[in-house]
Each structure stands twice: as structure tokens, then as C-alpha cells.
Specification:
alpha+beta
């Protein structure tokens, strides 16, 4: 849908990052579905009419062109993202590169995609960026997909991806043992089109914002997180913290199949 940045002007650096991400995929004991081949394409948008935006996106998601892709997609509203004017994001979840390629080919001639774009322009919905992410870590179950509606996001820039992921795996192992991790969480490599200079997109899912605040308070106060920050501070930084709410998920049952 719309244009998708695949190899940008720094294509060699991005390609090397892609190859590196492939070598790191699936090495975590906590990696689950999508950790071997999953991709996510995110379309950040600004909307002056959220109800009209939702209706337009919902119409597309119920179109034959979308249904034949056999993928999941979600619409999320940003509750907190600093001075970023983005109000919503549409995420498309692909099981592999083939399903991603199919979506590009279908979008090129899709009447439903064209209607989504033209109607969006009329109702004040503007697509501001597109980002391709590669899944490298994920813990999620079908039950989590159904119940998790609030999400906390860390956009992380790191100059040493293997070291960061090794430290992250150690931290995750400890918080699982302590029972202070969220029900679902994951890490994605920003393959192309990073919106804030992030190398990684890290997320955690919760049933609601109350649960998110309560669980993050425990996690943020933990010695495990303090140790992780000390271990990674010389080669990484969090460039943005964000909170989003899921407005709708289409074909959610496909996410963990």
C-alpha cells in the first residue's frame, strides 16, 4: 500500500543490517511465532478526523483485495509520542517475504487501495512515513493477541546490535524468572524507513493502560533493568518512548498461525 521504502540511499548499510538480523533471528529461547521470518510494515498517519479515518481503514480491511492477502493488520492510536504529530499507525503483519511481495504486487493495481488513499486525502488523513521492520524476538500467544490493547514502545538506536541483543536476551530471561515481564513483548530491526533514527523497535503489550502502568512501575524499579542499562549505555540509547492503543485488529487469528 502506498510506497514502501525497501533499499534507501544507504542501501548497503541497510542490506548488511538485514543480513545481520537474519543471523540473530530465532536464537532466543523466548522467540516465538514470527521470530524466524516475520515482517511488519508500518504506515504513520496524521488525522484531523479520527472517526472518518477509522471508517476508511475498516472499509479497506473488509475488501476482497485485503482479504486475499491472508495477513493480519491493525490500526493504533498514539496516546503519547512527544512532539511527533503522528496520530495513528496502520501496521501490516507478514509471515514471510513472499507474502510481503504479494502485497506489493496486489497494491499496484488494487481499486481498494486507491480508494483508501483518495478517501483518506479527502477526510484529512495524511500518510507521513512508511517503515519496514524485521522481527527478531517475540513472545506472544493467540490469547495475548486477542486481549492486549495497550502498548509501550521503546525506539532504540544501537551501534552494536549483537551485543545489545545478547544483553536483551539476558534481561528477558531474568524478568521471566522473576515474573515481572509483560504477557507479550518483542523486538524488531528497523530494516528501512526508521522514523526517529532507531535501529530497533521494542514493544510490550498489556490488557489496558492501568495494567501497563502498574507492571512498568515494577519493571522500571528492578535491578535487572538497572543492570541492563549499565551494560548497554555505552553503545545504545532510547531515542523515543511511546504509548499506543489498539483500535482494531483484522485477521488477528492469523498472527500466531
Amino acid at each position: 500500500i502506498s510506497k514502501i521504502y525497501f533499499l534507501g540511499e544507504k542501501k548497503m548499510k541497510i542490506f548488511k543490517l538485514f543480513l545481520l538480523s537474519l543471523t540473530l533471528i530465532g536464537t532466543s529461547a523466548f522467540a516465538q511465532q514470527f521470530a524466524s521470518s516475520g515482517m511488519q510494515v508500518s504506515f504513520n498517519i496524521t488525522s484531523i478526523n479520527p472517526a472518518a479515518t477509522f471508517a476508511n481503514v475498516n472499509k479497506y480491511m473488509n475488501s476482497g483485495d485485503f482479504k486475499k492477502l491472508g495477513i493480519s493488520a491493525g490500526l493504533y492510536a498514539f496516546n503519547a509520542n512527544g512532539d511527533d504529530p503522528t496520530t495513528h499507525v496502520i501496521d501490516f503483519y507478514y509471515t514471510d517475504i513472499d507474502s510481503y511481495q504479494k502485497a506489493i504486487e496486489v497494491a499496484a493495481t488494487s481499486a481498494a487501495v486507491l480508494e483508501l488513499q483518495t478517501t483518506g486525502l479527502k477526510n484529512g488523513t495524511v500518510n507521513t512515513s512508511e517503515t519496514v521492520y524485521m522481527n527478531v524476538r517475540e513472545k506472544i500467544t493467540p490469547q495475548d493477541v486477542e486481549k492486549n490493547k495497550a502498548f509501550y514502545i521503546w525506539r532504540v538506536h544501537t551501534s552494536d546490535l549483537p551485543r545489545y541483543m545478547a544483553a536483551w536476551d539476558k534481561m528477558v530471561s531474568e524478568i521471566e524468572e522473576l515474573g515481572i515481564g509483560s504477557d507479550s513483548y518483542g523486538m524488531k530491526v528497523a530494516f528501512a524507513g526508521a522514523v526517529k533514527g532507531e535501529t530497533l523497535f521494542v514493544w510490550a503489550g498489556y490488557e489496558d493502560h492501568k495494567q501497563m502502568m502498574e507492571q512498568l512501575a515494577v519493571f522500571n524499579a528492578s535491578e535487572t533493568l538497572a543492570n541492563f542499562n549499565r551494560a548497554t549505555q555505552s553503545f545504545s540509547e532510547v531515542v523515543s518512548n511511546e504509548i499506543s492503543s489498539q483500535l482494531s485488529l483484522w485477521n488477528g487469528e492469523l498472527y500466531t498461525q
